[in-house]
Design goal:
This protein is mainly beta. The chain folds into three domains: 1-76, no CATH class; 88-134, no CATH class; 138-285, Jelly Rolls (Sandwich), CATH 2.60.120. The protein is 7% helix and 38% strand. It has two helices and 21 strands. A hairpin with a 2-residue loop joins strand 14 and strand 15. The termini are far apart.
Amino acid sequence: MPGVVDTTHTFATNDVVTSTLLNNIIDQTLFTSDALSGGTLALTSGKMKVATSGITSNELATNAVTTSAIASSTSATSGVTYAKMQYAANMKALGNVSGSLGVVSEVSILDEDDMVSDSATSLATQQSIKAYVDNKLVRGTAVATTSGTSVDFTSIPSTVKRITVLFRGFSTNGTSVPCVRLGTSSGIISSGYLGSMSGNTVKNTFTTGFGIQSTDGANIIHGSITITNIDSNVWIASGIFGASNGALTMETAGSVDLAAQMTRLRITTTNGTDTFDAGQVNIMYE
């Protein structure tokens, strides 16, 4: 039997043992397959080497691999590379959101244009951040006020906290005060407004809408009213206007407490029957 080694020389009866033969045996002895147990080692021309995939967790003691044994990265392909840690669930990144030193875990990446989830531990995509910023200040579609008795802007998002109502060259054919009224899903609200308006020396309060002190149908007004959410469904308004056909400056300010979320607004007159005959209106919200 060859045993675990092959000495590459076999002595015959009465052979003389010389130093040369012994040196050759030592120098030329090779391992045989009987020397192997398991799959950790392999033979190449009688010499032992670590087998392909031969070292597994069974051969590694707990904590046998330390950070000092891992080479520091000097390029994108050295050290612990991307290829060694590239797999993660879809829309996840590795991080620690525990608030203190802790184990790294998967962190959600959210692609929400409105950032509605309001997460303190998730990441936002570049696209969602851009969309949110781009949509932060939204301008509606301008509407001509050359006819009709009112203009409605509907489907105002529930996240809106400020709306600016814009008037350009606006006028009516009567003397009723133009006003802005807010509305909910139940309809336009025409009562409960608190505040006042003035135009040069003329001053009046209003209760049916945020009024604009322009009681002359010939007045052509320009300006805006900013309506801001102060708390829950409570809104405050302030605005200033000028008339391009005369030395008239108009101011307005007030508040209204709605019973539900504002979803729309209406531009009209307090009597609701005077007809628009010039200009255009629009809204901007954020």
